[in-house]
Amino acid sequence: MSKNRLIIVDISSFIFRAFYAIRVLHSPAGVPVNAVHGVLSMLLKLLSKYQPTHILLARDTKGGSFRNELYPEYKANRSAPPEELIPQFDLIKQLIDHMGLPSSTMAGFEADDLIGSACVQWKDSFDEILIASGDKDLMQFIGDNIRMLDTMKDKIYDREGVFEKMGVYPNQMVDYLSMVGDASDNIPGMKGIGAKGAAKLLAEHGTLEKCIEIKDTLKGKKLTTAFGEYLNDGLLSKSLIEIKTDVDLGLTDVESKFSFYPEDSLLNFLKDLGFKSAVVKLEDMKFAHHQAEQGGDLEANAPSSNIEVLEFNEEAKGHILNASCIGIDPQFTSTDIRTFELSALSVSIENNKSYFLDESIAKNFLFEILGNEKLTIATSDYKSLLHFSFSNEQDLNANIFDITQAQFVANAGERNNLASLSEKYLGSGLAVFDKKTPFAFENELSIVTNVSTARAHANYRLKEMLFDELKEKELLTLYEEVDNTLTPVLAKMEYNGVFVNEAFFKEYELELQKKLDSLQEKIDKHSLEPINLNSPKQVGAFLFDELGLPVGKKTKTGYSTDSSVLEDLAAKNISEVPALILEYRELGKLLSTYVKAIPQLINGTTKRVHTHLNQNIAATGRLSSTNPNLQNIPIRTENGRRIRKGFIAGPGNILLSADYSQVELRLLAHFSKDQTMISAFNDGIDIHRRTASEIMNVPVENVESSDRSKAKAVNFGLMYGQSSFGLAAALKISRKEAKEYITNYFERFSRVKSYLDELKEECEKSGYSVTMMGRKRFLPDIHSTNRTVKANAERVAVNSPIQGTAADIIKRAMINIQNEMDKNQLKTQMILQVHDELIFEVPEDELDQMKIILKDGMEGVVTLDVPLDVDMGIGVNWFDLK
DNA sequence: ACGCCGGCGTAC
DNA sequence: GACGTACGCCGGCGTA
């Protein structure tokens, strides 16, 4: 038996929102119709998404309400509706009639009074009532079976939801608004009390009356004036805000039942208005309706899915546990990896069919299958299953096949989310939850069932196809031994998290803010009006139009103001402004991207940040880090590097880091077999110094530090396929000089040149680049006839094997090290990877043992023609790791 | 109000 | 046209 659900719609607010949301459109007859169109689509969405059995459209009347007699200023701040909206009110009335939707209007009362009356009078007639409105005033009616729906945000508020948003409960809403006032209705409230103050008072004293009783004990000048001088405003406000609940609605609860069917009269009405696409949509609906009546069970609200939903019972359980491979789709309740819960689970073991398990049974069954070592489970997110096992202290013994990761290995750089894969391999896309309600539990059960069962089925089907593709492309071993084995290591790192000194960030924030304010002030003195220094557009106009400084680079949209431009200007010494802006930019970056952002991501329970280490994003095979990105914490400038003081070891522990020294250049030496380079590494000579000596023709001992920096840039530029143009720009030297360095380099390191050329040729032949471990990156652009596109692909072909091999090496090291730590039952935790560096949080008594494990684990991954050197550092925080 | 993109800057 | 791999902040613009 399906539930009775009433939706009460505040139609006036729909009309205004629709009008302003859509630009003015006209019907063939020249009448403006944008609001009509908007209201129609909002109503259709409401019907399909929330499937009400009953509906009531509450409308305002043209004349004022009793409130205007009480307070002539009521809503006096509202200007008359725009001219183009006026004729649409009547059209919308007609629209509602054609749609056959029950509506109500009553002279002397506003829509709010009708909504309140319906809530109170009909409360017991429905299982559920949804108020579709954005009006905070109506929140007072929220209760056991009454919730409020904000259609713009697609958010539903219940009692707790109101408290979260407003800081007060629904039954305190009237008192709250009486104090705070409501600018949109010109309700004064009590001057001196804001949102926070009102919430605090009501939390302490419960009601406005109670507050008035004890007003003499209130402290603070603002509060005493508010409860003295402005108390009457509060009481007047209250009388305006209170909503009538005894208005005659003109229809009964039973009469609000409706069933929407697009009749011809509606279609003709819409055709006259010129709504072509809406007419097509409704005709489709009519057709679907017709089909359904013929015996189908099509659900209009749910995204279409052809997966048959099987009943999950004891027998089904047996089938699943005995299957060789199952596809699953777990739906979790949040992205907080330490606390999320399971809200649903689908399982598929045959074509076009899935079982669906709701919250009550999903969890235990998921534990059961995850614990079963004989099962192979195909899923799209192995890491989440691991987190779920960790937080519930359950074993994960099953063999997991991660569809997303398999696609990443098979086709790095291509899209790898389940929906794209379903489209690519199964020929049909997947329904997804609305962006505003991304978690299953926020959606209707029928939608959850459709989405989830289809995903489990897709995982089931894709497993075999991707397994075969990996095998076919000789990537299966890489997937199994590297990527799939690394996932539990990463899951553990994320779960561990990095301990943060929150107080440090707070202090640094104040310091930076102060410096930024003073810089802003200093810069504003040079300008007629204040500049938003975070806006490149405003900075450009200021520097080049107002101050008339010489224009350097341009971007697509205007003047370039990036650091190289500002540095050039600063060097010219015409104005102090460019240097000030550079300083502002540096500190502003630190403040917004790191110092303010990171504390917001601290987990309240662990006091740590739990970054996501993504394994299937970077096309070379590197990891990436998000929320927060801990792989780009500053180190180069002093101000930036200080941020690292905020990342600390937990009590009794110490941080230990180990990084590969020059790993990519060592790989270049190994791959190219260039003896000059190899001997430099074997003899322990500083590679940049050696390079400088070669390309500048000076003895190693005479290399200046500026020469070394240039050589360093040449070394790195090479691996990225940098041109003389790029090198010149980077080093601020002439193109001629840059070109000379590159020419000299290739003369002295001739094997490097031929190696890089070979990489391009190989890629041209095979269509892909490949790392030492066999990780492939397919580069169709290598065959492009467009010179720029081809040149890009060539640079990628040169860079990927080097960057990718380094990535594979450290991944293997991580696996070996975690194994070794487990074997020795160490308490040490791996907490971070930054491409060529690993960071551990180590109990002091495990330090010596860990140093050995790290050195062996990292240096021993592969044997090259040059040593793989590892440098280590310890410290109580990340800054001190030296 | 929200989403997307450009500009910019941080890391390796 | 010109340096590879990422992430993420902010402003500004377009769209709903």
What does it look like?
This protein is α/β, with parallel strands linked by helices and 882 residues long. The chain folds into five domains: 5-256, Rossmann fold, CATH 3.40.50.1010; 264-294, no CATH class; 308-473, Nucleotidyltransferase, domain 5; 520-606, Up-down Bundle (Taq DNA Polymerase, Chain T, domain 4), CATH 1.20.1060; 664-789, DNA polymerase, domain 1 (Orthogonal Bundle). It is 49% helix and 12% strand. The protein has 34 helices and 25 strands. The longest helix has 37 residues, at 787-823. The protein is globular. The protein starts with a strand and ends in a 7-residue tail after the last strand. The model is unreliable at 289-303 (pLDDT under 50). It binds a DNA duplex (12 and 16 nucleotides) through α1, α22, α24, β18 and α29. Residues 4-259 form the 5'-3' exonuclease domain. One of its GO terms (molecular function) is DNA-directed DNA polymerase activity. Its EC number is 2.7.7.7. It catalyses: DNA(n) + a 2'-deoxyribonucleoside 5'-triphosphate = DNA(n+1) + diphosphate.
